[in-house]
Each structure stands twice: as C-alpha cells, then as structure tokens.
Amino acid sequence: MRVAALAGGVGAGKFLRGLARAIPARDITVIVNTADDLMIHGFLVCPDIDSVTYWLAGVADRERGWGREGESFRALEQMKLLGGQAWFSLGDLDLGTHLARADLLASGLGLAATTDRIARGLGVNATILPMSEDTVTTRVEVLGSSGEHLDLHFQEYWVARGARDEVKGVRYEGVDAARPSPGVMDAIGSADAVLICPSNPVASIGPILAVKGVRDAVRDRPTVGVSPIVAGAPILGMADKLMPAAGWEVSAFGAAAAYRAVADAFVIDERDERLRARIESDLGMRVAVTDTIMSDDAAAERVARAALGLTGS
Amino acid sequence: MRVAALAGGVGAGKFLRGLARAIPARDITVIVNTADDLMIHGFLVCPDIDSVTYWLAGVADRERGWGREGESFRALEQMKLLGGQAWFSLGDLDLGTHLARADLLASGLGLAATTDRIARGLGVNATILPMSEDTVTTRVEVLGSSGEHLDLHFQEYWVARGARDEVKGVRYEGVDAARPSPGVMDAIGSADAVLICPSNPVASIGPILAVKGVRDAVRDRPTVGVSPIVAGAPILGMADKLMPAAGWEVSAFGAAAAYRAVADAFVIDERDERLRARIESDLGMRVAVTDTIMSDDAAAERVARAALGLTGS
C-alpha cells in the first residue's frame, strides 16, 4: 500500500513516525508545506521540512517538540552577543542542516533533491518532498496593539510576535505561480491513499492544497484527514488563531469541514465523539474515533492505523 | 602615541596583543586585509578580520593558531554528513560571528561598522577596520598537477588545495576600484607611526597597500615593518610560496625590500642578524634585531617595543 501524506511540522512528524510503524517507510511519500520557509542570516530555513525530517529520522527533541535532540546553541548565543538577529532559534546541529542545504542549492540541486539528500543523510527511508520548489509565503494580516494593520511573514507572526496579534486574514503569496515539486503529482496520483496529517489546516495544509493541481489530484484519491483539534483547541501550535480568519470553526468539526472538498473520511479524538454524527451527516464524511494524543510512537501508530482503516471504501 | 597597524591574520593577531601591552589599546587602529574574504554557505567570512579580532579579544585558540579557544564543530560535522561543503572549517562559536556579520550587513551597516560592532561585542578596545568595504579578492594563478593553468581564489589555493600548486602569479582583483574603508585614511594620517605587522607581504599586506591612497599615506608617516620571515622561512603560513612570484627573495631581506617604498625601518629576528648590514646599506632602512618568535604575550610585547623603538627619527 502506497501512501502520500500532506504534512506541516511537529504534529505531522509525530504522526508519520506512527505511520512508518504501520506500513513500510519506503511506501510513504510526505509532501511538506514550504509556505513558512524563511531566509535568515542569508540562508534558507524550512521549518516544516526539517521537523518532518528530524522526526522521521528519530533525532527530534521529544521534550521541546521542535529541533533536534541533544542540541546545543553555541552559535546562536555568540551571534546574540555580537548583534545578530536571534529571534528565530537555531541550534548548532540544526545549523548544519541549513548550511548543507545552502551548499546543495548553490551546487544546482533543486529543493526537492536537496531535501532528499538531507533526509537520506539522516537515515530517513520515507520520501520527503517540498510541496513546491517555487517560493510561496504565508502572510498573516493582523491588527497590531495600536490598531494598525500589519502584513507579516508567518514566522514573524508566530515566532517573533508570539501569535499575539488579532488575525484579520491569511494569504499564500506566490501560490498562483507555484508548481508542485518534481515527484509530488506522481506520488499523489499513484497513492492508494492520501493522508492529511494532524497539522494546521490554514498554515500548513492550506498552502499545499493551493499549489496548482494538488487539490484536484488529492480529491481523486481516497483521502483521510486527522484532526489537529481536540476538545476545541489545537494539540500544538496556533490553529485556533488562524481557523476563524479562514472561516472555520475551531473544532474537530471545523477541521473536517476544512477538508470536506478533498477528503472522504476523518479521524477525530475520543473527546470529540459527540461531533461524529454532525461530521457524518452535515459533511458526509466517514469518521473514526480514537485517542489522538501522540505521546509516543505506539500512540502515533494507533492514530495512523485509525486513518488507514478509513481508506477502504 | 597613536599607532596605525597594517595586519593580516594570526601573525598580526599575536603581534597586536604585544602592542596592546606596550601602548593603550584605544590608541591602536588596525587596518586589516580583506582580500582573502570569501562567501561560503551564503554568508561572508573575513578570516583576517576574525583572527585579529579573536586575538585582540583574548579568545583565540593559541594551540591551533586559528579560530576560537574552546571551539566546537557540531554544525560543521552535521553539515558534512548532510552533503555540505566542509573544506573551510567553521566552528560553532565562529559561526556565531559570521551569522551576526550577515545580519548586521543586511541591516544596512557597512563592513567597517559591522567589524567594529563585533569587535566591541567581544571586548576589544583597539579599533579594527577592514582595509576596504569594496570587494577585493586575491587570485592566485597556479600550475595544476597536470600542468594546467588555474586561477584560484586565495582560500582555494591555501585552504582547499593546501598551497600545493606552483604559483605563477598573484593579483588583487577589484583593487583598482576599491576605496579605503571609512576611518582608514584618517587613522593613517593622524598616526604617530604606522606599523606593518609580521604578516604575509604578498597575501596580506600587499592588498592593503594597493588600496587607493593607502600606499602614499603610509609612506608619509614614520613606518616600521616587522619581518614575517625568520631564517629564510615564514613563521606561519605560506609567504615562501608567494614571495618569489611577486619578485621577492624569501628572507628577512626580501620582506624588508617588499616594504622599502613605504617603510623607514624594519625589525628582524636575531637569527637573521647577518642580514642587518645588507638591509641598512642596500635598502637604506634602519634595523632592530630581536627574538621575533611570539610564543606568548610577553614575547610579542618585546617585538612590538622593538618596532616602536624604531619609530623615532
């Protein structure tokens, strides 16, 4: 069974570790959001690609959630002291990834081949693909503290300003011109199932589906989503701040509604059992209910198996 | 007494620590070669500026010579594993410097202000100035192992290829259009003396003197050189490979001759005592003789005092 998975960052990383226990990793192609990538200190950082890569490689920091296990921050501390921009935290091992990426891109490789080289270097057996090699940027329009309108890069909104601003709108700059990365359309087209990882529907999955051709290709496959919302709040991140701006209720129902046009079925948490009937009747989606809190790989495998169980007709 | 010092890398750094014991550091302006700067992984690395900064800050690694004391190489090791270019060794603390430099430059500061910000951040009291904010690059023309002509960036010649090629010529690309950094001409013009640190005459001091106006300004001040050559060989580095290509004998005499047009006097090592008369008579330069091996700061202070002793008339 071949699976294509649409993924954001840490939530997706945890889920994919479980999926790679349920089916062979080599049969999984992960298509990762790049719309929160940023240029910093002169090189490209791809937070979602790196999260997925580190989680699948088994080198992610489980306690902190982001970044690498056993990470140190010597370069960052020094950079702070010497006047550099330290708002985006980069560990020493993580820097190794970014510098390798800079060199691989400079050597003429595309972002897809670069991502693959890095993932294989860390021992990942699944295929990890950026959604696009073209630049797409999630911009968040907010009301600042003095009522001023600000148009922020997603990472400015989320990391630099701590998601404190009232969100008025979200858009994916550049997405109309963005083509899927080499391999993306094939992976979706040849997949026995597409899984939508428990990631932010607006900041992570929305940009992937907005890349030319992806939404239609996903719609053509048996597709199952996993709710990133449990009991009315995101398990991780700030989906609750962005979903209302996109017109979605902050609930497992709202997340299911966000995927209704592309997904046939949805996995929700047992705490949201009461929403099952509404999703089934109002949205016409099949529903599986399980404990979706992925505290370890075994728990993640249970969620993955619930999703895989919905891929039949 | 105000001193302007022309400097390359590690040899200059050691000497300057001695100079800063002989006179107050705040009275020293160091004008540093930038012609072996390089772009790597997307950011600018300034090896000579960093060496001088680390030595003056007291954070240089005395044993290894280059880089920082207590350095680690976690980013580099990771980068190697993931396919990055690891030929130019960058430690984690050192990376902090380069990333801060990238940010300061991106914020609109020039290289002179950026260099100053970094040096002050590390507690340096002397003023450190790049020779120019314009790009100058030392190119080394060599015969490759199959007799082919190659035109290499200085760092390619020196670090990547280990100075193994036969050198046919050296040129300072871009120097005709390069202006001195803000502060350079003032520092030289107002100096009671100019000291030429024991650096490579071809790779380090040559580019500084070639920047528009610098050679004439130095000639107008009482100027003293310190020999980087002892007993016919460089104390550090590969001046022996480059001096012949520039037409200089590899000896304290050859080094003195390289500076004859700008310097009145020269410090040589006691092992080269026999060259004193020849330098005095053939080149018309006053000479001081001392032990120039700078094994510690006290030894460096002795060399600095010998140079300062020659600055009177």
Q: Can you characterise this structure?
A:
The structure is a homodimer of 313-residue chains. By secondary structure, the first copy, chain A, is an alpha/beta fold. The first copy, chain A, has one domain: Rossmann fold. Helices cover 38% and strands 20% of the residues of chain A. Chain A contains 13 helices and 14 strands. The first copy, chain A, has helices spanning 10-22, 47-57, 74-81, 92-106, 111-121, 154-160, 184-189, 201-210, 214-219, 239-242, 252-259, 276-283, 297-309, and strands spanning 3-7, 28-32, 38-40, 43-45, 127-130, 137-143, 149-153, 166-173, 193-196, 223-226, 229-230, 233-234, 265-269, 286-290. The model of chain A has no long low-confidence stretch (mean pLDDT 96).
Which features does this protein show?
homodimer; 313 residues; alpha/beta; Rossmann fold; 7-stranded parallel β-sheet; 3-stranded antiparallel β-sheet; 13 helices; globular
State the distance separating the first and last CA atoms of chain A: 15 Å
Count of DSSP helices of chain A?
13
Rg of chain A is 18 Å
Low-confidence stretches of chain A: none
Q: What is the CATH third-level topology name of chain A?
A: Rossmann fold
**Overall mean pLDDT score of chain A?**
96
Name the pair of protein chains with the most residues at their interface, and give those residue counts: A-B, 32 and 32 residues
Q: What is the general shape of chain A?
A: globular
Give a short account of the largest sheet of chain A: 7 strands, parallel
- Which bin fits the share of residues in helices of chain A? 25-40%
Oligomer: homodimer
Beta-strand content bin of chain A: 15-25%
CATH superfamily of chain A: CofD-like domains
Number of domains of chain A: 1
Which strand order spans the largest sheet of chain A, edge to edge or round the barrel? 5-2-1-9-10-13-14
The CATH architecture term of chain A is 3-Layer(aba) Sandwich
Number of strands of chain A: 14
What class do helices, strands and sheet pairing of chain A give?
alpha/beta
CATH class of chain A: Alpha Beta
> In sequence order, what are the helices and strands of chain A, one letter per element?
EHEEEHHHHEEEHEHEHHEEEHHEHEH
